[in-house]
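Sharing in case it's useful to others searching the archive later.

Someone asked me privately for the predicted structure of (S)-3-amino-2-methylpropionate transaminase, so I'm posting the question and my answer publicly. Question first, with the sequence:
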Amino acid sequence: MTLAATPQTASLSPILKQATPVVVDHALGSWIHGTDGHSYLDFTTGIGVTSTGHCHPRVVAAAQEQCTKIIHAQYTTVMHQPLLDLTEKLGAVLPLGLDSVFYANSGSEAVEAAVRLARMATAKPNIIVFQGGFHGRTVAAASLTSAGTRFSAGFSPLMGGVHMAPFPYAYRYGWNDDAAIDFALKELDYLLASRVAPNDTAAFLIEPVLGDGGYLPTPPRFLAGLRERADRHGILLIIDEVQAGFGRTGKFWGHQHADDLTPDILITAKGLASGFPISAIAAPTELMSQAWPGSQGGTYGGNAVAAAAAIATLDVIDDEDLVENARIRGEQMLSGIRSVTAGYDAVGDVRGLGLMVGVEFVSRDGDVAVPDAATALAVQQATTRHGLLTLTCGPEANVVRLIPALVVTEHEIATGIERFSAALSDVAARNDGP
Ligand SMILES: Cc1ncc(COP(=O)(O)O)c(C=O)c1O
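And my answer, the predicted structure tokens:
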């Protein structure tokens, strides 16, 4: 091969859209240090991934040690010890009865695995999802997603058999929680009666907190209503814990805020391995056994280094009492953000569960609150300038979300609130709003 006289230079595809201009040099705990010499308090955690913070020494050590043993032990060819150990450890935190685990790489893949399992096990085609839900970007996962047309426009046809019911988004409807829940359950019953027969429906699929759909906690009574209907009609309940699971909401699984509720299939990824790509679905053995053996798999699924990192993540969460920390620091963050946003007309709603807090921006048209994406974006960008990394979300892109690591300290939350407040007042001064 001869080299061209003038070597070609490549650049990153414009398909990628980056929320901040930061280029990372290194990171530790809740802090990212940029190549620009600035340090940033990271309330994005790689979209809720680095549960134990960046580069937790025990996660780093576990991954380093595993790298010296075997990196890629392809799991449909040979089995490896970290995956067996991880499965045993996960057994202790999985809801009772969900004792069979299948691994993949990403959240989207795990969502697809869950849907495939549900369809195979029930021999029924339909999946009912809820408006504003986000389940990933692969074609099937995007077909299940309604957190913004940006995730599913332009590459139709999407996967068939997906039907959508309303989510009890009380703030949007201008109702209280109970009215929104009653409405959403009534509309679900209407959908089941009018268009999507229970006998043709494999599963309901829902997040315990809508993530990309706007940081909206799913009310426990709504989840209980889904469970009751699932049992009544022989439909499976799939809970997508990809973003809300692994301690983030102050309980180990987000759905545990609904007492005594157990899903039929649970999906996990993100926080599972503190940043290494691994995902999983869990279901009762009896259900999992109805999948055709060999019907799922993949080259990289259940990677050995990721599995070792996941084991270390579980140990750190346990030893450092991080689920309880998420609960306490989450309460601090929610009340702190509520207090610094009070009095701003552009802040329509502040909500959250544990270390998932969303601030919804609106403009006013008389009594009507109109989603205001421009102000949300301005605030998100201003937080970066104040040394705090945040993200936007929501179908109308008008929510700023804060997602600190589970190791976040009281001082770091206080610093984050101060920086958020400074960013908000900058934008207000510029716009003569919010
Ligand atoms: C709830 C939920 N499900 C699925 C996914 C898709 O995961 P991934 O991006 O790893 O494919 C995400 C990602 O943000 C998510 O938040």
